[in-house]
Specification:
- It is built from 3 helices and 5 strands.
- With 91 residues, it is of the alpha+beta class.
- It has 2 domains: 34 residues; 53 residues, IHF-like DNA-binding proteins (HU Protein, Chain A, Irregular).
- The strands form 2 sheets. The protein has a 3-stranded antiparallel sheet.
- Helix 1 packs across helix 2.
- The radius of gyration is 19 Å and the shape is elongated.
- 1% of the residues are buried.
């Protein structure tokens, strides 16, 4: 779903204007980016967490030359077990 489709679906479900729903989604995204370093949980969906990646060897796809990829911190999204079970159920 695109952002516009999400806004439209939520607006019709909650009987609120699309601008209000879009504002709420924008504020949630801003809050998530500010709080990701502490772990930001979206109830029922999952959690944003910071993860340290180790340095590793990679390969330049054009030349095949080995390159060293440095260690770095990345943001990961851990999907909640309830959502995982709902999506992957064998019904």
């Amino acid at each position: 779903m695109t952002k516009a489709q999400i806004v439209s679906a939520l607006a019709s479900k909650a009987s609120l204007p699309k601008a209000t729903i879009a504002g709420i989604l924008e504020e949630q995204a801003k809050l998530a980016s500010r709080e990701a370093k502490n772990g930001f949980t979206v109830a029922g969906l999952g959690k944003l967490v910071l993860v340290n990646r180790k340095a590793r060897m990679g390969r330049n796809p054009q030349t095949g030359e080995p390159i060293k990829i440095p260690a770095k911190r990345v943001v990961r999204f851990r999907v909640a077990k309830a959502l995982k079970d709902a999506v992957l159920s064998k019904k």
